């Protein structure tokens, strides 16, 4: 099935449009149903999973529990946010090599600001800019014109 040939797309796009809308609706419905199921599992096993992690001295990570012949894994992902002013002060207090070892810096320019920039600024920044394709999307709708 992985190497199945692509289905033939007829010249009349009406069936393609209708099928695409049908599939998109089914995906939406299934995503909603999956969310309900996952929320139910979280509600049922979250306390046990958090206790499992707490017993290991952790607040985040994966906890796999066994129940009724099933393994249920809850993944408590963490997001780290750094206080920028405090971090800069801490890094400034270190020698340069140590600070470079622990910190990474990425400088960027907002695309909206770049597009609004005066020609001389835009020209200078263009030398530093590479635009890559991030992806392609497609949509089809009825042309009522």
Distance between the termini: 40 Å
Q: Rough shape?
A: flat
Largest sheet, spatial ordering of strands: 1-2
Averaging pLDDT over every residue, what do you get? 91
Radius of gyration: 26 Å
* Helicity level: 40-55%
The structure class reads mainly alpha
Uncertain stretches: none
How do the helices and strands follow one another from N- to C-terminus? HEEHHHH
The main pleated sheet reads as: 2 strands, antiparallel
Tally of helical runs: 5
- In total, the number of strands is 2
Strand content: 5-15%
Tell me what the structure shows.
The protein has 145 residues and is mainly alpha-helical. It has a domain at 12-80. 50% of the residues lie in helices and 10% in strands. It is built from five helices and two strands. The chain has helices spanning 14-55, 84-92, 96-102, 111-116, 119-126, and strands at 61-67, 70-76. It has a two-stranded antiparallel ribbon with strand order 1-2. Strand 1 (61-67) and strand 2 form a beta hairpin. The two termini are 40 Å apart. The model has no long low-confidence stretch (mean pLDDT 91).
